[in-house]
Model the fold of this input.
Amino acid sequence: MGSPQPGIFALGTNSHAYLEFDLAPGVEPRRAVDLVASLREPRTTIGGVNLVAGFRPELWATVAPDAAPPGAAGFNEPVVGPDGYTLPATQHDIVIWLTGASYDVVFDLSRGVVAELAGQAVLANEIVGWPYHHDRDLTGFIDGTENPTLVEAMTVAAIPEGSPGAGGSIFLLQLWEHDADAWESLPVAAQEEIMGRRKADSEELDPKPPASHVARNDQDELGKIFRRNIGYGSVDRHGTIFAGFSADQRILAAMLDRMVGRDGPPDMLTRFTTARSGAYYLIPSADRLAQLVEGVTPAG
Done:
């Protein structure tokens, strides 16, 4: 089986940067993909920083059709609920996700990546993330309670052997901005009703409120994903970077449909958080990227 890019599973990192790029006008897609592949040694890390590289599914399919999961597609249209609540589509061509123990090394490598891709890809968006009280998001609740163990995560996140793109993963990247004042004005019991969990220990409420976040995103119903969520932002504008990996894009898409109420009531949490971005990327296996590295010449 193709080996997934190891940075996907490198837990415990304190500093994150997501760099999204668009191809420069007139650039040959294969040339840009090869250059991204050459940024890294796919089986290791660089200077203590983990680097994960991904591509708009349609872009990857033009370069490596044999390693493209059937039906995989970018976040090309907004997801709109019956009441008009909208998850925006902000798809780009390339994503580079960097994680490390401290932001200085992540920052240095971020600058290096931008310089290496100059002339081939233009930086379109940069997001910097950081952990909040170890394992909580900025609502104050424990995040990732349903995440699989690292032993299980490989089968959840990686496309299985024998399928096109084996060892790769579908990556959903979203920025969710919280209405902190409105959320924090609620009593804890009301917050728990919305989340469907107790705040202190993350135990599920029994019964689960039907429109709670837990009920609308029940992974026992929809299928498992592997999440690497992290906090972001400033004092006045902040929230959660949702970073979800799956072997099957349909699971991720179904979760978004349920959040906006396309299948039942909308997720109550959407009253207090607003999606600001949305993109899907195909994260190729480390082995497939390594194959592309051979024969790449410096840009210029």
Remarks:
- The longest strand covers residues 273-283.
- Residues 21 and 124 are 5 Å apart (CA to CA).
